[in-house]
Amino acid sequence: MTNPPIPGAPSPEPPSLDEPTEVREPLPPKPDQTGPETVGPTGQPTGADRARVAQSGAYLTTAQGARLYDTDHSLKAGPRGPVLLQDHHLREKITHFDHERIPERVVHARGAAAHGVFRGYGTASGVCRAAFLGKDVETPVFVRFSTVLGSRGSADTVRDTRGFATKFYTSEGTFDLVGNNIPVFFIQDAIKFPDVIHAGKPHPDREIPQAQSAHDTFWDFVTLHTEATHHTLWNMSDRGIPRSYRMMEGFGVHTFRLVAADGSTTLAKFHWKPKLGVHSLVWEEAQIINGMDPDFHRRDLADAIEAGAFPQWELGVQTFPDTPEQTFEGIDLLDPTNIVPEELAPVQPIGLLTLNANPSNYFAETEQVAFHPGHLVPGIDITDDPLLSGRLFSYLDTQISRLGGPNFGQIPINRPHAPVNDMLRDGMHQTAVHRGVAPYRPNSLDGGCPFLAGADTGAYVETPVTVPEAKKERSAPETFADHFSQPRRFWLSMTPPEREHIIGAYTFELGKCYEQAIKERGLKVLANIDAELCRRVAEGLGLPAPEPTVPAADVAPSPALSQLGREWPVEGRIVGIVAAPDGDLEGVRAARSALLEAGLVPLVVAPAGGMLDGDGGDPVAVQRTFATARSTEFDALLLAGVPARGGDAGGARDAKAGDAATAARGVDPRVLLMASEAFRHAKAIAVWAGAQAALEAAGVPLDAPGVAVAESGERAVAEVLTLLPAHRVWERFPATLGAS
Ligand code: HDD
C-alpha cells in the first residue's frame, strides 16, 4: 500500500531541467589521466594499464561493475518508511565517501601542479652522465609548486617559502629535484626540522594563525636560532610573495655531486631560471588577493597552460671542484644556509623545462604525487650536507603514512617510466600481479632473475668518497657558525624599493608578535645584519635599536640577487580594461586586439556582465564586472572612459580636470579603488577618452611616472607595453611606500 501524497510537498521525482537522456560513452581519458604506461623489460608497453582506466562503459555501476537503476534514493520500506540496512549500494557509496580524504602533507600541504617536458641541452654531459641531460633528450616531467606552512585549503599569496618539486621520468629511473624558491634553508641539520615546523605552524592551543609566519612561536624560534636568519630574510623580501609560480626561481638548495662517464666528480647546485623573470606581489596586494581569490597562483598556472602560454624554466648548475674541504671561495658548500653568489660561480644552463598540460584530476595526480630527494639516477649523487641526509629518510617515511602503505610507487603519477623489476612484494594497496616464485637473490628457481647491473650497464653506483676518520659526536663544523655575513650580503644586494619592502615585512611580522621580548630579540638579530635595517624596523615597532653583537661582515653585494633593473618578456600578463557602456568601445576593441597580438591577456571590466555594443559595432564581451573585479588581478590598468556610479557613464566624464571632488561624486567607487590601488602598487596605468577625471578623483597624479593619458586605446596599450617589461613602475617608489 502506498501513502497518499502530501499536498504541497515536492514531487518524489522532480523533473530535471537539462539532463541529457541519450546513452553516451564517457569521454575518453585525457592522455595524462592514466599516468606513465607500464613497460616491460624491453621497453614495450605491457598493456597492464588498460585495466586501470577509470570510468569505462556508459552506465553507472557499483564498484563491482553491477549496473544501477537509481542512485538518488535509499532502499526503504515504502517511500516514507525506514531505510533498510540491506541497501548495499547506499552503504558502498557512503563508506567510500567517508574515506575520501587522506592525511594532508605535514608541510607543503597546499600545492598546484602541471605536466611538462624537459629537454637536455647536452651542456652538462662533460660533468654528468645522467642520460636525461643529454643533447635534445626529452623527458616527461611532473612539477608541483606549494606553500610550506598552510593547510590544503589555505590561501596562495601568503608570505612563505614556495616548494618547487620536479619529477623527471627518465629512462634510467625517476629523478626528483625537490627544491624551493629560496636557495637556503632555516636549519643546517635535519634533526631540527620538527622544531622549525612546529614553530611555524599555528599555535597549538587555538590553531591560529593559518599559513603565516607573523606570530610569536615562529619569531621566538628564528630569533633564538640564528642560523635561520638568512632564510627568514629571504622570506621577508619580495621572494616571500611571488607574483606567480611561473615567475619564481627554483633551487635544489643542497650541493649535489655530479658524476661524469669517466667517474670524475664535480660539486653542483641546481637552479631553475624562469623565462618570464622573477617577479613578486607587493604586500598589500598579496593580502587583498588572499581574500579576493585565495586560488590566485593555482588559477594563474592552470589558466596560462590552458591558454597555451606554457611557462618555461632553464635548469642551470653552478659547479665547484670536488675538493676534500668542499668549500668554494671560503663558502662551506655543505652548509645549506649558504649561497654561492652567481658572480663567483655563474649558473650554466643545461636544459629547458616546459609545462604544457594541466592535471586531469587533482587528487590522483597533484595530491598523490610523492617526491623524494633519494630518487636519484646515475650521474647525480648526494653530499654529506646533514640537512640532505635527514631528508633522505623523511620523504620515504612520510609517504607511507600519507599514501597508506609502501606501494605508493605504483600509483599512476608515481610510476617510473623506466622498467621496474624490484623484489619488493605485497603490502597495503598492492596493485601489481607479480609473476615468478623467487623474489629473492640469489635464486635458481626464476632462472636467477632479476640480474644485477654494473656501472657499464646503467647501475646506480655510489661515489666511493673517503669518509674522514673521526670520533662519533653530535656537533657542527666551526664553519657553520657564521650566521650573519650571508644575510648581510643579501641585504646589501637589494635596491631601495626592495629594502623598503623588507623593512615593511619585518615591521609587520614582529609587530604581530605579542611578546615584547621576542620583538626585542628580533631587533638584536637585525642589528647583526645591518644598522639601518634595524633602526627602521625599531622605529616602526616604537622600540630602541640595539647595538650589534658581531662586527658587520665585509661582503660584496651580489647584484644577481636583486629582482629589479632588468627587463622581461610580458607574455601572459593580465591587463584590465575598464570600459563604460557608452564610452569609446572602438578604442576598447583596438586595445584588446593590440594586447592579444602582444601575447597579453586583456580582461574587459564593466558595470554589469554581458556584452558592450552600444555603438552598434562588434559586441565586446565583459569578463569582469565591478562586483567581481579588483585591481590585484591585473598587471596594468587601462581606463577607457569613466563608468559612473550605477553604470551611468555621463556625469563624471564631464567633470573638469582638477575638480576631483565633483568627479569623485560621479565615479563608481569601485573604479576609484581600482585606480588608486593600481597606482599604490606601482602598476602601469593608461587612460583615454576623458578617463583622466577618474584618476584625479582617485588621487592619482596625472604626471606621476607610469601614468599615461593617451589619445586612443592603441596608444594606451603602447604606453603600458613599454612599462611592463620592468614588472612595476619602480620610480613611483618611495611615493607609494604605504603599499610595502
Ligand atoms: Fe621537505 C615536502 C622542499 C627540507 C621533510 N619538501 C617537501 C616539498 C618540497 C620540499 C618542495 C613538497 C613536495 C611535494 O610537492 O609533494 N624540504 C624542501 C627543501 C628542503 C626541505 C628544499 C631543504 C633544503 N623537508 C626538509 C627536511 C625534512 C623535510 C629537513 C625532514 C627532515 N618535506 C619533508 C616531508 C614532506 C616534505 C615531511 C612533506 C610531504 C612530503 O614530504 O612528501 O617529508
Automatic annotation (TrEMBL):
GO terms for cellular component: cytosol. The keyword Oxidoreductase applies. Its cofactor is heme. It catalyses: 2 H2O2 = O2 + 2 H2O. It comes from the Bacteria. Heme binds at R105, R144, F193, R391, Y395, R402. Residues 61-449 form the Catalase core domain. Residues 1-53 are annotated as: Disordered. Decomposes hydrogen peroxide into water and oxygen; serves to protect cells from the toxic effects of hydrogen peroxide. This is Catalase.
